[in-house]
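Example S7 (structure tokens).
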């Protein structure tokens, strides 16, 4: 069928085309079918949407993702991508081989799958899981389709990753300068928040730039031994971000996909010695110790397959680590810890993970000494300067949102639980991570004795409206659980 193509100003991640309903019926295509478009000897594939309001009969509306198409075009039905067949196999719980997984990964990278088809892939891996062999192949394929950093002059390149799910777990900006100060390269690419109040990139953005090209990242690491940048600004395992986008609405994160996503990015960054933090506990992503151990073993096996030395730490994640939740408040915790203070749990966890990582890299330096001597702070300030930040920044320069909601205990007792999910939800309602100064400061931890009127936490916001939204959630939920002594003995045993 000959139609007239015209561009339409509608943003779309997939190569979408809009057909008038009458033209679609004549072509014999349905919603989300594909059509082949021939224009000036060039062939493109578009994913079909119907409309009667936006497109007249005889017209093919083309979104920007397909490039510049205008004028007469020849349009015929096109077959589904091969990846769709393999996704159906996975939905039927049939194990996929490497070529099949490679095709899925390639079609995701090239945006050949509709949102529904990508959602089906995520549902299949969540429902039926990925075998160890599938996970190994998937990690390889995800690394292969993106860019890669090569460190020609360095045999040992370190990295660190946390599975997530624990509020205030901002150990990365402390570990990176410790390792860098010890003379070990650690090119850390981190994510922005998806469902949390802050990712490492959000926190670092309070202090410096985080978006750099691969060449700029290499230059920063060559100069300082480390970096703390946003991974989304470079093309390292780009399929991972697209899969995460499909997982987010249902808050699902299949174990096999977690492993493939994490290790494909580390492989692409050129890292070969990695510490993976696996927090477990009530409210964390991994709830039981048995699940944490199984995930850690699989990380090591897949790492071996990829030629990477993986050390996994299984840590308690049933409550937040730092005091601050939200970009500015977490940045304050980081600076305080590097200066020798900060929340005790944040310091202890950072030092422990740094020691394990240094040991894995064959470095005999002591993380505590590096931190206490001020070498880690000096390395951190060097990284800030290299990333365009203020290397003289202090805690006093980081001001949280001026609108505050102090929350006090209405009963006497012992803190038995600080809910990670609710802490994150309250901080996000207050505006984090978009509003850098929004979030929450915690004033107690599990096991603390509390009296009536004692402060539990303070919510910060940059607007009254968002503070009111956070307050409504606080009023109808139990963010921090306080129980009598007898009840606490039962819960804490």
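Recovered sequence:
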């Amino acid at each position: 069928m000959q139609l007239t193509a015209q561009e339409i100003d509608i943003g779309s991640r997939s190569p979408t085309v809009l057909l008038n309903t009458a033209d679609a019926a004549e072509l014999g295509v349905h919603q989300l079918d594909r059509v082949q478009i021939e224009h000036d000897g060039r062939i493109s594939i578009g994913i079909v949407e119907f409309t009667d309001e936006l497109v007249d009969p005889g017209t093919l509306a083309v979104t920007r993702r397909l490039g510049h198409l205008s004028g007469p075009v020849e349009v015929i039905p096109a077959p589904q991508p091969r990846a769709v067949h393999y996704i159906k196999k996975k939905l039927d719980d049939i194990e996929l081989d490497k070529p099949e997984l490679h095709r899925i990964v390639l079609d995701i990278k090239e945006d050949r799958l509709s949102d529904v088809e990508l959602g089906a892939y995520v549902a299949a891996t969540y429902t039926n899981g990925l075998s160890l062999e599938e996970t190994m192949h998937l990690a390889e394929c995800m690394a292969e389709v993106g860019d890669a950093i090569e460190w020609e002059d360095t045999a040992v390149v370190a990295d660190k990753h946390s599975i997530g799910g624990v509020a205030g777990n901002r150990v990365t900006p402390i570990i990176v300068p410790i390792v860098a100060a010890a003379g070990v390269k650690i090119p850390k690419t981190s994510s922005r928040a998806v469902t949390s109040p802050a990712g490492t990139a959000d926190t670092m953005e309070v202090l410096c730039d985080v978006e750099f090209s691969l060449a700029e990242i290499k230059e920063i690491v060559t100069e300082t031994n480390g970096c703390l940048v946003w991974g989304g600004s470079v093309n390292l395992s780009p399929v991972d971000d697209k899969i995460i986008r499909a997982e987010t609405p249902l808050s699902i994160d299949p174990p096999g996909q977690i492993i493939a996503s994490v290790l494909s990015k580390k492989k692409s960054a050129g890292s070969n010695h990695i510490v993976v933090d696996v927090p477990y506990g009530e409210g964390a992503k991994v709830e039981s110790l048995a699940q944490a151990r199984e995930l850690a073993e699989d990380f090591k096996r897949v790492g071996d397959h990829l030629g990477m030395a993986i050390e996994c730490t299984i840590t308690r994640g049933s409550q937040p680590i730092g005091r601050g939740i939200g970009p500015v408040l977490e940045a304050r915790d980081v600076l305080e810890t590097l200066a020798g203070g900060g929340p005790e749990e944040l310091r202890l966890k950072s030092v422990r993970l740094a020691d394990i990582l240094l040991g894995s890299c064959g470095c005999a330096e002591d993380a505590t000494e590096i931190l206490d001597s001020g070498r880690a702070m000096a390395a951190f300030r060097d990284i800030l300067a290299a990333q365009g930040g203020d290397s003289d920044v202090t805690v006093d320069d980081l001001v949280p949102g001026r609108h505050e909601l102090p929350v006090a205990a209405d009963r006497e007792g012992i803190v038995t639980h600080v809910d990670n999910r609710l802490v994150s939800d309250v901080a996000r309602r207050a505006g984090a991570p978009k509003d850098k100064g929004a979030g929450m400061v915690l004033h107690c931890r599990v096991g603390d004795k509390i009296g009536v009127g004692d402060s539990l936490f303070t919510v910060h916001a940059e607007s009254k409206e968002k503070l009111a939204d956070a307050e409504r959630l606080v009023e109808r939920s139990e963010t921090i659980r306080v129980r009598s002594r007898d009840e606490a003995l039962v819960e804490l045993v």
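Notes on this example. The chain has 18 helices and 18 strands.
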